[in-house]
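The instructor's notes for this session suggest beginning with a concrete chain rather than abstract definitions. Hand out the sequence below and ask the class to guess, before any prediction is shown, which regions might be ordered.
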Amino acid sequence: MFATSKIHHTEDLEVIPADSRGHRPSALFWLWFASNLTIGDFLIGLLAQDYDLGYSSTVIALAIGTVLGGVLVALMSIMGPIFGMSQMRIGRYTFGRKGGIVMSLLQWGNTLGWFTFNSIIAASALTLAIGTKFYAIPIIITILLVLGLILLGHRTILRFERGMSLVLGVLFIIILAYSIEKIGVFGSSTVPAVFSAVSFGWIVAFSFSYIMSWGPYASDYSKHLEPSVSRKKIALYVLLGAGLASFFSEFVGFYVGMATNSTSPNPAQPLAQFLGKYALVGLYFLFLGGLSANAINLYSNTMSIRAAGIRMDRKYIAVIVSAIAGVLAYLGYNSFYISYENFLFILDYWITPWIAVMLVDFFMRYRQYLKGGYREVVNYRAIFSYLLGIIVSVPFMYPSEYFIGPIARILGFDISYFVSFIVAGLTYYILQRRHENKSLNPLPS
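After discussion, reveal the predicted structure:
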C-alpha cells in the first residue's frame, strides 16, 4: 500500500500519519452497527406501515433499499486508510481544492440536519420517560451529552459506540420478541395484502436514502486504519455493521407500526403505546440510539466545516453547532413527521451524484493523487457531471406535494437517486477518460 506521508499538505489539518493508526477493521463493524441501531431507521419502519404493502413485500423493499445504500457507504469507506483523511477532504482531490469546498458545506448542512432530527427524537423519548412538559429541558440534556462525547475525542466515541452496539442490540431484541408475542410473526392484519409498485418504490427509496446518507461520513472513521488493511475487509465490516443494524431497526419499527396507529406529534409515542408497562425500556432505547447516531453526526460536522476552510478549533465548532441544532430541534418538534419525510429526500438529493463522481474518480485516479497531491483548483469535469446528474434527475423527483417531477408523477414515487447516480458516474467516466487520452496524446504544435 501507499504511505500517507505522500499526501500530507500543510493546509490539511486532518491527515492521520500511517504510524499512528490501528489495524483492526472490525472496529468499523461496531461503530456502524451502533450508529444505525437508532430511531431514524426505526421511524422508517413506522412510515413503511402507512403504505399498506403487506408483510413480505415491505420486508423485501426495506432489505433492497438497505443493501443498495449500504454498498455505497462500504465502498466510500475504503478511501479512508489510503488517504488518511476525512471524506470531505478526500473530495477535494476529485472536485479540486476550491470545488470541494462547496461539497463540504453541503455535508455540513447534511450533518446539521441529521443532528437536529435525531435530537428531536431522542428528546421526545426523554420527555415521555421523565414526564416533563418542558420540551426544552430534554433537548438541552440530549445535546449536552453528545457535545461531551465530542469534546472527549475520537477514542471515546469509538468506546461509546462499541458499548451502545451491545446495549441497543439487546434492547432491540427484547422489543422484537415482545412484538412477535403480541401480534404474531407476520403481524395481526386479516386484510389480504395487495402488491403496489408505487408503495414498494417509496419504501425502497426511504430505506435507501437513510443508509446512503452516511456516505459522506464513511472515511471519517476508516481513516484511522493503517494503509495496509484489506479493503475487502473494510467494505465488508462497514456493510455488515450498517446494513444489519439499519434493516433490523426498520424491521422492528415496522412491527410496532403494525400494532399502533398513533397520531401523536411526539415520535416516541407509538413505541411507548405499544410496549405498555415496558414503555420506559423502549423510551430509553430511543434516547440512547439518538445519542449514538448524533455522536457520529456532530464529529463529522466539525470535520466537514474544517474541510471547507474554517480553521477554528473543532471544539469551538462543536459548541456552536450544538447551539444551532438545539434551537432548530426546539422549533421543529411540532412538525416532525412531515419534516422528516421531506428531509430524507431533499437534503439527500446532493449525495448520490456526489458519491458516483467520487467513486469513479477514486478507482480511476487514486494512484495519481498519492503521488502528486491536489492537481486542480477546480475540476470542472467533476462539477459538470455532478450538476448534470442532479438536473437530469429533477423530473424523477417527488420530495413532497409542493413539487412533483413530471416523470415521478407518472410513476407515483421517487427514483431520482438512482438516475442521478448513473448519469453523474457515467458522464464523469467519459469526460475523465477523454481528458486522460488528450493528456497522453497532445496535439502536435
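Then share the key points. DSSP finds 19 helices and no strands in the chain. Residues 1-13 have pLDDT under 50 and may be disordered.
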